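dumping the sequnces here before i forget
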Amino acid sequence: MLVKLLNTLLMIVVALSITGVINRTRAVLAGRRGIRFFQHIYNARLLLRKGSVYSTTTTALFRIAPTVYLGAAIVAFLFIPVADLEPLLSFHGDIIFVAYLLALARVAIILAAMDTGSSFEGMGAAREALYGALVEPALMMAMATLALFCGYSSFADIFSTAQELNMNLTIVLLLVAYVFIIIMFIEAGRVPVDDPKTHLELTMIHEVMCLDYSGVDMAFIHIAGWLKNAIFATIAANAVAVAFSFHWWFAVPLAILGAGLSVGIVESLRARNKLSRNVTYILTIVAMSALVLLTGFLLIQNIEI
Amino acid sequence: MKLYLTTNNRASAVAISDIPVVDYAELYADLRDRMCNTRYHVGHYFATEIENGLKFYMLLLDDTTGEVLITSFIPDYYAEGLASLTALHPQFHPFEREMHELYGIPFDHHPWLKPLRFPHNRRDKSSTMDSYPFYTIEGDELHEVNVGPIHAGIIEPGAFRFICDGEQVLHLEIALGYQHRGVEEEMLRSQNRLRQTLIAESIAGDTAVGHATAYAEIIEKFTDTNIAEELKLERMIAIELERIAMHLADTGALATDIGFQLYQVACEALRTVTINTSQAWCGNRFGKSMIRPMGTNHPLTAEKVAMIRKNIADVRRRYNEVREDICEAHTLLTRFEQCGLVPKAEMERIGGVGMAARSSGHMRDIRATHPWGFYAEKIHHEPVMKGEGDVMARLATRMDEILQSADYIESALATYTPSGTLPAPNYEAPLKGEALAFSLIEGWRGEICHVALTAANGDIAKYKIKDPSIHNWLGLAIAVRSEGISDFPINNKSFNLSYCGHDL
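..and the predicted 3d for all of it:
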């Protein structure tokens, strides 16, 4: 039980730190000192103390959505192990469950955005739905690759048995980690797919769907975003840790730094994609995870023969 | 019969009695053919109230000879209406729309006499922002997106109505007028010229130097003052500093809009150096108080010359590095190249001016074609021209113009030793009565044209202002056609047009 609690605690540390590392990396690369490391937590605390304002055109759906969004993210979050530790929740097939919890979160927020009747939010919802649908095969195939390696379909089992894996699979595991990091970019709405810093409604994807939210609801959405980042960053770090050193004290800093630095550096050194190019970008990741799955499958076959 | 009075941008004010009063039908027939030649474009076209009616004035600019053709007519428009020039040459559209809005003049066959800026003294008070006649297209597949008039951030109000097919823009209509302050009427409320100078500086906050120079030139033309060579030089420095600062700001803003942090912060830092140079010179970062009629309150000193030279050399060197990096940043190029195309023919048709026109290969640069002051005497200006007409071309024009302006400043100041004898501003000199004066200035955005008429006692009786934005807003609407709606912000930023300069 203690291990499970430690696991959850470490996941929370990862979730809270990634945004700080991103902000600090961006600031350093821009030649600034930057805001406090945990400023985003203070901001969320401030939002949690505020009430919410609701547009009169919205219905109950709009009010429920942030709770569903956060709830789904929390439950998914509890299924993720940190390297050799055990997660709080686990059952056979939970990788599918986690994937669809995240899809549920997305559907909730898309419906809420449509509920406002704003043309911006409608556009944002359409974009989110398109990219969500496109990125899902990549997520499934990357998870399938992990499952294939150990024959298990629960995160806890995959990563606890993964230590015995043949190191020939290192490259494949690194690629799986890469795919998960890119999926995190897409899910979190970071450059090059989306730009969380922009004030231009016409170019937004994730941000525009949250335009009508305020106070507690906004805080819920932010917190759910941190949890989703932590989920993908930890899975990616686990995949790398399997290949090198399967210990929580290796995986936790790796998750924080891997996700934080990559997002911070990419956001400083490149421009956003043209929106119409995002489809190509995401499909490239899908193609890559298909390739990873195929390579992993062939390698496994060879080993067994 | 002589149709036009020929003058130029350096001549002093002309007597109103010298301007031919022509028959509109004759003028119309002449313009039908004349304006087909791109060497001509309309500088200003407005109506002014006279006893029992209206008198129309038109300024045509001849870019080949540097001449300005002035004409006027007094139509009996209640009886017959005026044949619309916009129908032949769309570049007349803002002027005819303005006159229709102010005086209810019916222009026959005008494609669409939409309201221009909803001035307080408009003729049809029932025409309001809320009843703006937006263009609509029917269709189940299409949707409308309205942006504004209140925008995120600190930009000015203006409504953009998109008609989209999915993500693709079919049509953009831009409804302005929210910023109307009655600047032209305000100029006439008092004959206090210091007050008028301050109003001129506030016509468009980002072009304070440009508009103030235009006003000062008008006063100097009415008083027949030939200002000192040194003052001409200092005004050139002021206007080029403003150009550098604004082009830097726009380079940075374009980087911001594509989420490219590195160039954003680099350009912001350089812009700060530039506007701080203005502040060290005259006490205001945007160059307000720098330009005054017939003299100056802030003559350059040897220390200030050294300071400007040092800062501009620094900005030039650092910007050149940024510029080279931008030209190699492939993620930036894929966003900007082939995005928001305005072909040269289109730019000519709508009468585009300034750097946006030059980016489409359409040569409109007052510094080269109608030079004034220092540009006429000491600089042989070669306009920066690009042919592509896309966002990247507009960025490239900016980048080259920054270096060009820095060169002008550096070479002018290299041999400059201020004599310290520049006069203080003179707000009292009597103006020539019954005269018309105009000034043409190439601000950073493009051609600024002010026209003033004086009464018999020398009071300014009519003051007309034209900011280049009024020509180029239509260019933005054309640029985003068939682009993705998410590329509108970078197109908007690449033009960076003024709301208050349009609305006045």
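Residues 181 and 504 of chain B are 6 Å apart (CA to CA).
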